[in-house]
Write a structure and sequence with these properties.
The complex is a heterodimer of chains A (about 110) and B (about 190). Chain A has about 110 residues and is mostly helical. Helix content of chain A is about 70%, strand content about 0%. Chain B starts with a strand and ends in a 6-residue tail after the last strand. Classes of the chains: A mainly alpha (about 110), B mainly alpha (about 190).
């Protein structure tokens, strides 16, 4: 029996919205790591990403990554919001991208590439 | 007792936003896990659920405040370049140019080439991850019990957010110890006792 203070559960929600949020977070982190690496390796990319001079290329790297993350999230949310998606593959992809992001931002690894 | 404006902003960035976020992280991960596990004794009340949602939103605000103040207020002071037209025998005092100060000494250069290079990027994983965690919890609430895979992935991202903030916080503290951000107007916290 539910206690008086416990909230009643409303009808089940599909997993699409959660999958969209999780995958886009993985993509956002990876975009940031990939752009940071590209800015480190290529003077042209570094110059292009110099959106705000006092902060340097970091401003372009982070702004672009945030835009990629938000746009991906909105698109996936619109596509999957009311759907039940195969989550296992999405979870593996998101966690792989997150792990790869940590690895790529680690300077000794970035220097090897 | 004085503090410079730049020193004050560095404290706000590191202590008020960064350290508070790290403190909040450990509590959130535990509470999140407790409220979303299937054990019947942990059935959350509406008030508990609302509290965790507000707590997560506060963490989102803290994490974004930490990275934005870091990137757009502190970092420009860190990487400012000293004036070029100074003869070598009259070199500027590098204390006002933290990045150059670190690079000027082989014993401290790695705090920039490794420490700042990693910190300035890895820190951003924290707000991205915790924003997703907060959104997912607000959207699903206790329904997460029925979505074990989503719950597991969300917990990994919450832990990743904690690790990213921890790396950034540790490196930031060490860098600021080796080459403190200084300058700007002096704020007198307490009048001198002369």
């Amino acid at each position: 029996m539910l206690s008086r203070s416990a909230a009643p559960l409303s009808p089940p929600i599909t997993n699409g919205s959660g999958a969209a949020a999780i995958l886009s977070a993985g993509i956002g982190c990876f975009a940031l790591a990939a752009l940071a690496l590209a800015a480190d390796k290529s003077p042209a990319v570094r110059s292009f990403l110099n959106f705000y001079k006092p902060t340097g290329p970091l401003s372009g790297v982070t702004t672009s990554a945030i835009l990629i993350w938000i746009i991906t999230w909105v698109l996936l949310e619109l596509l999957w919001r009311n759907r039940t998606v195969a989550f296992s593959g999405i979870k593996i992809a998101a966690l792989f991208l997150l792990a790869l992001s940590f690895l790529l931002t680690f300077p000794p690894v970035g220097d090897l590439l | 007792m004085d503090i410079t404006l730049r020193g004050l902003w560095t404290m706000i960035h590191g202590m008020a936003f960064g350290a508070l976020y790290l403190l909040a992280c450990s509590g959130a991960i535990l509470e999140f896990h407790r409220l979303t596990t299937a054990a019947p004794y942990s059935e959350p009340t509406l008030a508990q659920e609302r509290f965790l949602k507000a707590y997560l939103v506060a963490m989102v605000v803290l994490s974004w405040a930490a990275v934005f103040t870091g990137a757009y207020i502190i970092y420009p002071w860190y990487r400012v370049v000293p004036p070029r037209a100074v003869p070598p025998h009259d070199a500027p005092n590098l204390a006002m140019f933290p990045q150059r100060l670190l690079q000027s000494n082989p014993a401290t250069a790695a705090w920039h080439s490794f420490g700042m290079e990693w910190k300035e990027h890895v820190a951003w994983f924290a707000p991205i991850s915790i924003t997703m965690v907060a959104f997912t919890f607000i959207r699903y609430g206790r329904h997460l019990r029925r979505h074990q895979q989503i719950r597991a992935a969300v917990l990994v991202f919450a832990a990743a957010s904690f690790v990213a903030a921890g790396i950034a916080g540790f490196l930031g503290a060490m860098i600021n110890k080796a080459a403190p951000i200084q300058g700007g107007p002096v704020i007198h916290l307490r009048p001198s006792q002369e």
